[in-house]
Design a protein that fits this description.
It contains 12 helices and 10 strands. By secondary structure, the protein is α+β, with helices and mostly antiparallel strands. It has 2 domains: 89 residues; 238 residues, BirA Bifunctional Protein, domain 2 (2-Layer Sandwich). The strands form 2 sheets. A 7-stranded mixed beta sheet has the order 1-5-6-10-9-8-7, with helices on both faces. Strands 2-4-3 form a 3-stranded antiparallel beta sheet. Helix 1 packs parallel to helix 4 and helix 2 packs antiparallel against helix 4.
């Protein structure tokens, strides 16, 4: 047994000197300390020894195993360090070389138009109110006067997590934030908020996207009228599209407002004279608005005999396309620096 131990020790010391690669280490581990290695095989011959001999040779074998582990793992660390140093030397950077020009980005037009709206309304005393994109059917529809089965739901092509009777969905309008704001206002006093954010609908082409941005406004107070709404929208459109912009109201229908209007602005391309953009009408539809429906106020705890309100909503993507002359909504989300960097110049005009 002692002769076998001595022979293995001598063989190990010889083999360790020949190791050059990690693969050599793998083979050496298998040969000596693996489950079927030479050192493991020594223990099989101990069954025939006496108890005293087993103790003696057990200590010898453990000593050999520890020695083998120390030699092999030490050699493995040495090889790994050599590989690392070689890699570091090859990948060394000469800091005296001239640097490559880093491409400079710019704010996305959606960021620009959102901030422009927010700055305007904050200056008018509004609060920017946010809400979750994953919403309940109750907040997205029922508390906006759209019960289950209402035909207006079909036009929004909502992303339900399962089907229409399930509770959660991806919000199809930022009006859900208005509902939350009214419910959060436990004192049921005046509210003046704008709610920008992402919404989702099953639609995608050059002028529509399955994900897009909206901004909606809500004012609730005593003695609020359509005149307040018209003045607010005129201020908003003149600020975003230019001082010569005029606003026109057309009667419409929305379940959550009564009366409801579609809002047009004079074509910013032809100034209202008529062109291919406005289809020779001189007007472009930009948003929907109206006085908050009494049922919507009641469902959120307001007394419609005391408080009135107006609400409006528009697509920020659409406004960005109008303002910056973007023909395809999909380019807004393409993250192409050649497209995005153009809008630095727009702010200087």
């Amino acid at each position: 047994m002692k002769e076998k131990v001595g022979s293995i020790r001598e063989s190990l010391n010889t083999d360790i000197k020949e190791v050059k690669t990690i693969q050599d280490i793998v083979e050496l581990k298998s040969k000596y300390i693996g489950k079927t290695g030479l050192i493991s095989e020594l223990t099989k011959g101990m069954a025939e020894l006496s108890i005293e001999e087993k103790k003696e040779f057990g200590m010898i074998i453990n000593e050999l195993k520890n020695e083998a582990n120390s030699l092999i793992f030490g050699k493995e660390e040495e090889i790994n360090n050599a590989i690392l140093n070689e890699k570091l030397n090859k990948e060394a950077i000469d800091i005296t070389l001239p640097s490559k020009k880093i491409k400079r980005g710019s704010l996305n037009p959606m960021t620009r138009i959102t901030e422009e709206f927010e700055d305007l309304f904050v200056s008018m005393g509004y609060t920017v109110y946010d809400g979750p994109e994953l919403e309940t059917d109750e907040n997205c529809f029922r508390k906006l006067n759209l019960p289950l089965g209402h035909p207006a739901r079909d036009t929004q092509d909502t992303f339900y997590l399962k089907d229409e009777v399930d509770e959660y969905l991806l919000r199809s309008q930022t009006s859900t934030a208005q509902v939350r704001a009214m419910e959060d206002n436990t004192e049921k006093g005046p509210i003046r908020i704008v709610c920008p954010g992402k919404v989702y609908r099953r639609d995608e082409d050059a002028t529509h996207s399955h994900q897009f941005m909206q901004i909606e406004g809500l004012v609730i107070d005593k003695n609020i009228s359509m005149a307040d709404l018209k003045g607010t929208l005129e201020t908003m459109m003149k600020h975003v599209l230019g001082e010569k912009t005029e606003v026109r109201f057309r009667p419409s229908y929305f379940p959550f407002t009564e009366p409801s209007v579609e809002v047009d602005v004079t074509c910013f391309k032809c100034g209202g004279k008529g062109c291919n953009l406005c289809k020779d009408t001189g007007w472009i539809e930009v948003l929907g608005a109206g006085m908050v429906h009494p049922d919507v106020l009641t469902m959120s705890g307001y007394d419609p005999k005391v408080y009135q309100g107006f609400a409006f909503g528009t697509g920020l993507d659409r406004m960005a396309m109008f303002k910056y002359g973007i023909p395809d909504i999909r380019t807004i989300y393409g993250n192409d620096l050649r497209f995005i960097n153009q809008f630095d110049r727009k702010d200087e005009e």
